Amino acid sequence: MKVIQQGQPLNLLWLQSGGCGGCTLSLLNADCRNLFDTLKSFGINLLWHPSLSEQSADEALAIIEACASGATRLDILCLEGSVLKGPFGSGGFHRRTGSVSMMSMIERLARVARHTVAVGSCAAFGGVTAAGINPADACGLQYDGDAQGGLLGEEYRAAGGLPVINIAGCPTHPNWVIETLVAVAQGEMYEDNLDVFRRPRLFSDHLVHHGCKRNEFYEFKASACKPSDLGCLMEHMGCKGTQVHADCNIRLWNGEGSCTRGGYACIACTEPGFEEPGHAFGVTPKIAGIPIGLPTDMPKAWFVALAALSKSATPKRVKENAVADHQVVTPANKRTRLK
């Protein structure tokens, strides 16, 4: 293993495989004036990015080969998009210029990379590209859905000692990516910083439910019935925010947005298998009128009892606003001074 001298910038190589490029598009909305300068300021040297770099195809291939051969130190390998193993495990569905498959190129680079990072749920778990009958045999770097394995296998560890770091999301929040890369560059990323699916805990120790603007409606079980309603989206509209690990409603997107703030349910895009929920994304499946997907750490009996009590105590303001597209009843004015 090559030792990195103190103050020496870390070389980052970014590849795009089976995906839409949406995580890169999201990354360009990071809270910084210039992405390249920000990475550089934290000691990260971007060797090449297929969408953002200026090198020709021949120059890019030379950079990749230098990393794979060890001539250029590869500190961080980032993959965006799933690995396409088909047909029949050959990787032939996705080839770079020439006859080499992207799959084999990723395997070579992963063997020499000091850190390997999956950017987005496709690279982490297979994502949308692995949905349905999956003719391309798409999978993640170290997971295939929620099962360990993927391309690199359950036992894979990068040269720095860590498994693949899964920055899940469809797309990822740009600051999840930057903060994870900075933590790696600063030597502050350890296995304890990763959750059970090896997602950075800097965002996965929260639930989408945390910070949601609709939480008052959730508390009283005052539910939306159509997308434009202000009420909670869990009971009827398919929202999984009480189960999904991400800080979308705390960190926000572009400083002010999230799926639920935009009127759309959380579809669990940071979780493995989100692409095939078994029902329409905008519908909440129920048994005997009770949603199947309840909060992750709450017994069903408690939820049912509290929901019934909450609904019986719902203020008129909350009940009427829940099924309106704007606030129709404002909070009452009362003296709050204690005596």
Task: Summarize this structure briefly.
The chain is an alpha/beta fold.
Query: Looking at the structure, what is the overall shape?
Result: elongated
Q: Proportion of β residues?
A: 5-15%
The run of helices and strands is EHHEHEEHEHEEEEHHHHHEEHH
CATH architecture of the largest domain: 3-Layer(aba) Sandwich
Fourth CATH level, the homologous superfamily of the largest domain: NADH:ubiquinone oxidoreductase-like, 20kDa subunit
Number of strands: 11
Sheet/helix structural class: alpha/beta
Percent of residues in helices comes to 25-40%
Counting H and I runs of at least 4 residues, what is the number of helices? 12
Overall residue-averaged pLDDT value: 92
Weakly predicted, low-confidence segments: none
* Largest sheet: number of strands, sense, barrel closure: 5 strands, parallel
Terminal CA distance reads 69 Å
Order of strands across the biggest sheet?
2-1-3-5-9
- According to CATH, the fold-level topology of the largest domain is Rossmann fold
Radius of gyration, whole Å: 23 Å
- For the record, the count of structural domains works out to 2
CATH top level of the largest domain is Alpha Beta
Walk me through the structure.
The protein is α/β, with parallel strands linked by helices and 339 residues long. It has two domains: 10-204, 3-Layer(aba) Sandwich (Rossmann fold); 206-330, Irregular (Cytochrome-c3 Hydrogenase, Chain A, domain 2). It has helices at 22-27, 35-41, 57-69, 102-112, 121-125, 174-185, 201-204, 215-219, 234-237, 248-251, 300-312, 316-322, and strands at 10-16, 44-48, 76-80, 83-84, 115-119, 138-139, 143-144, 147-148, 165-167, 286-287, 290-291. A hairpin with a 2-residue loop joins strand 10 (286-287) and strand 11 (290-291). The termini are far apart.
